[in-house]
Amino acid sequence: MLSIVIPTFNEKDNIYPLVEQIHAALPKVKHEIIFVDDSKDETPEIIQKLAETDSSVVLHHRENEKGLATAVVKGFSLATGDYVAVMDADLQHPPAVLMDMYASMSTHADMAIPSRFIPGGSDGGLNLYRKIVSGTARYIGKIILPCLRKITDPTSGLFMIKRELLEGVELNPIGWKIMIEVIAMCKVKRVIETPYTFQDRTAGESKLSTKVTLQYLKQVWNLRFHAANKGKGMKVAKWSQKKLKEVKERY
Fold first, then answer.
1. If we measure between CA atoms, which residue out of 6, 188, 2 comes closest to residue 101?
2. What confidence score (pLDDT) does residue 209 get?
3. Cα separation of 112 and 143, whole Å?
């Protein structure tokens, strides 16, 4: 069983194509899609209507809370699968990579991370400004947190992890980068990176701002002192497209 946690904020035009693509990507994998929603538009109504005919869709709408990272943590508490995936709702994280991550986890990995920065991957969906911001964030994170140094794409919001590694772990993320919080605070020992291409946004608007960038810097600095995972003994394998195809053929 796979749980897919998706934080949403004003993504009404992306919900139906996103769910359709997730189902298409996982035809033989039992899964649930958990939306944790902070929207001010019609997004929750659209999700609720979809949930009435699709039992795999779960909606948790928050009225007095907001924030991508805290929404994901709430999704963790609702998840029932053996594995938990996290992805954005804007389709810049292509749902097809869910099967890549699932196949990776089947080889006894603790965590699967699609990467834009290994052979076969691309960050073509980012404009120049966002590439600069993203690159700077990765560089700072790796300097401050040893557990991120072997990972090529540590600031992505796209990953899959064993749910048991989340149990009993106190996560207190701020801002937008939940994955670094998970890596730093959970007992992650074996990571597999697979290549993927970051897509252009098809609808809605980017949530990137100066505020969330400053929140990221604060988050990384706080983790410097509280991280449970210091990176010792952590192994990161980087799979080629060929290796990934070989493993996926089993499914």
1. 2
2. 54
3. 22
Order across the sheet with 31-37: list the strands. Answer: 57-61, 31-37, 2-8, 83-86, 159-162, 111-115, 190-195, 235-238
Those residues with Cβ within 8 angstroms of residue 48's Cβ, 6 or more apart along the chain or in another chain: 59
* pTM over 0.85, yes/no: yes
Extract the tokens encoding 33: 């899609």
Q: What's 204-225 look like in SS3?
A: CCCCCCHHHHHHHHHHHHHHHH
Three-state secondary-structure class, residue 61: strand
Going by C-alpha positions, the residue among 132, 126, 133, 123 that lies closest to residue 214 is: 133
**Of the listed ranges 37-41, 59-63, 107-111, 152-156, the one predicted with least confidence:** 152-156
d(CA 56, CA 26): 12
54-113 pLDDT, tens digit per residue, is 999 999 999 988 888 899 999 999 999 999 999 999 998 999 999 999 999 999 999 999
Measured distance CA(215)–CA(195) in Å, rounded: 28
Say how far apart CA 65 and CA 79 lie, in whole Å: 19
CB 84 within 8 A of CB 160: yes
Q: Which of 234, 158, 231, 149 is nearest to 194 (CA)?
A: 158
In a 13 Å sphere around the CA of 182, the CA atoms on its Cβ side amount to 31
As a whole number of angstroms, the distance between CA 177 and CA 157 comes to 6
Q: How far apart are CA 43 and CA 37, in angstroms?
A: 8
Report yes or no: 145 and 234 within 8 Å, Cβ to Cβ: no
Q: What pLDDT shows up at residue 207?
A: 47
